[in-house]
DNA sequence: CTGTTAGCGCATTCAC
DNA sequence: GTGAATGCGCTAACAG
């Protein structure tokens, strides 16, 4: 099987020109006559020549691949975000390494290491599970970084955020208006910045509404359906008369609803539930889930656009955080 | 900012050894004394040295990255599949390029081109939207290929399949037992092999059950929620008395249920609905969705294991197709 | 407009 | 057990 891929040298030989001419012609660089360019291109085509991006990256000291790192691809929020981001990159002819960390800080670090070993220079990190200092250190390996929902800063770091505090204030205000007084919070991972922000917003709104903040009403949980289910059970144990639960995100909220149903609570009559993100399934579960809507594809597209701008050296105007919008459905209706 | 990354040469200089010794020590190859290896490693560590995988791949003519291509990352089936597959690869120290094709054959081709340009040698393709001949041709660029739910064969191709026919027969049999006689089918993309197999199974089971196959009861649709919604409307137009709809996959089925609800049909009293895959949300939507369960993480893990075996040259026993299992829930209960 | 020289960071293949 | 020479496929920086 002499299935050796043809290289730029093969094309040059077949076309009777130098390697550099082929390089210029194939990459659409100036400095080649029209006739030569067309001839070289058709020969390249005939030979099935495809440039080797690794070699080209090595020689030019600049990669055409990017990376995106997030905790859980099975969470539609991150899947949709990544899809939008990679689509945006692809439109520019850039490939992206998608790295799933399974909620593990260790694996997040190893994802960064892998990306660095591929000499990826620009990455998006969504929902980091690392402490700001560890994250900042790890990020030094990259030229351009966009952080989604994380406030860590640095000379090479841009931030794209959702206004979590504002969202939570909307949610709590809505529940207060409904007459809820025992509002619990199913918090996400302690290390998640958005989890912290959401918790802070919850607390602020509670106090602003004249209710006491009671840390016993805050239950930490893993950010998946099962984690939400367990959180609901824990909350009911601490306060059997709880009348509302706000969850860190939609999949957690869906789990909370399951846990509530397991315990025989009616939603929203006994306990109202509100999530965050508005993943597509929020509207489809039973009961349908009230949530704080975020335009997830826009978020992903924005993050990648900012990364591309960073890469291009385009100056960036500081960005306002995306404003979530409360969508009231059955779970709090 | 003299932030140049340290290279193997820097480590060699600092350690007072040759480049080759560093290479061997860092990669754990034999031919280095224990003392030398430890010394080199600690110096490499201190310098923050990370091997450049592109350069290493270029020199060794073998890549440590793999690829996975599928139509829609927002579909939990593919997201979970990809997550399992990448996790399995990561455990072996291999990175993977995740490529989303947005259901477009053109973009699928361009995904293959990108992967080839990165000189990726092993890929998984799930749910290809290309004709067998075009797919076969495109796949020649790769040394090792695993096809999920696609019967295209080739010298370098292994197949991992779900037994779609068997699944559909289970579904139809179940509906017949319930007394359904006007069973429609919301078919996926014509170019999808599993869509074809599922349709064939539906047809076989129908005829086997003594019912006529009526092609007017088969409505093609895009494999997303909206596609399912429109398919339901189309089916109701063609046969207002339809009493069951089987859908190509779960997200389509969820859309079908929405369409049915929009038209005022009760599920399952008026129309029963059955999906395929058992994505996590199938159990959570209203009404909960009967479906053909597939162990999606196992499927992804298996596909990657087969790819790794191919890569290693390990001989493979021919694999039986994964058997889906009918899960009866409210939508057909 | 086109070609030549040098080298990106690393591994292979030999020497010693 | 260790090192020197050579080249992977490509591009930057010049030369013509």
Characterization of this structure:
2 copies of one chain form a homodimer. With 333 residues, chain A is α/β, with parallel strands linked by helices. Chain A is 44% helix and 15% strand. The first copy, chain A, has helices at 8-15, 19-26, 34-47, 53-60, 76-90, 105-117, 132-139, 164-177, 193-208, 225-238, 250-262, 296-312, and strands spanning 65-70, 95-100, 122-126, 144-148, 157-160, 183-187, 218-220, 244-247, 272-277, 290-293, 325-327. A 6-stranded mixed beta sheet of chain A has the order 7-6-8-9-10-11, with helices on both faces. The first copy, chain A, has a 5-stranded parallel beta sheet with strand order 2-1-3-4-5, with helices on both faces. In chain A, α1 packs across α2 (19-26), α2 (19-26) crosses α3 and α8 (164-177) packs parallel to α9. The mean pLDDT of chain A is 94. Chains A and B meet through α4, α5, β2 and α6 of A and α4, α5, β2 and α6 of B. The structure holds a DNA duplex (16 and 16 nucleotides).
């Amino acid at each position: 099987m002499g299935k050796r891929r043809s290289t730029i040298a093969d094309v040059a030989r077949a076309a009777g020109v130098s390697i550099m001419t082929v390089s210029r012609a194939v990459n659409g660089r100036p400095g080649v006559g029209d006739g030569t360019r067309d001839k070289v291109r058709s020969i390249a085509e005939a030979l099935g020549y495809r440039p080797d991006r690794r070699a080209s990256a090595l020689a030019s000291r600049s990669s055409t691949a990017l990376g995106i790192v997030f905790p859980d691809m099975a969470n539609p929020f991150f899947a949709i975000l990544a899809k939008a981001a990679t689509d945006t990159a692809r439109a520019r002819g850039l490939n992206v390494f998608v790295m799933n960390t399974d909620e593990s800080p260790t694996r997040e670090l190893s994802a960064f290491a892998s990306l660095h070993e591929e000499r990826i220079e620009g990455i998006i990190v969504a929902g980091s599970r690392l402490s700001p200092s560890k994250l900042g250190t790890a990020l030094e390996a990259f030229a351009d970084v966009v952080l989604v929902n994380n406030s860590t800063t640095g000379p090479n770091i841009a931030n794209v955020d959702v206004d979590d505090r504002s969202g939570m204030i909307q949610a709590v205000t809505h529940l207060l208006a409904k007459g809820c007084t025992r509002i619990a919070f199913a918090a996400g991972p302690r290390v998640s910045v958005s989890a912290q922000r959401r918790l802070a917003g919850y607390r602020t709104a509670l106090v602003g509404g004249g209710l006491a903040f009671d840390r016993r009403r805050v239950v930490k949980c893993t950010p998946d359906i099962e984690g939400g289910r367990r959180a609901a059970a824990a909350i009911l144990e601490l306060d059997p008369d709880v009348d509302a639960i706000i969850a860190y995100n939609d999949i957690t909220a869906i789990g909370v609803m399951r846990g509530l149903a397991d315990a025989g609570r009616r939603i929203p009559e006994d306990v109202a539930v509100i999530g965050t993100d508005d993943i597509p399934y929020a509207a489809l579960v039973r009961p349908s889930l009230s949530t704080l809507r975020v335009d997830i594809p826009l978020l992903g597209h924005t993050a990648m656009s900012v990364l591309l701008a960073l890469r291009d050296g385009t100056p960036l105007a500081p960005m306002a955080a995306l404003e979530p919008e409360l969508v009231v459905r059955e779970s709090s209706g």
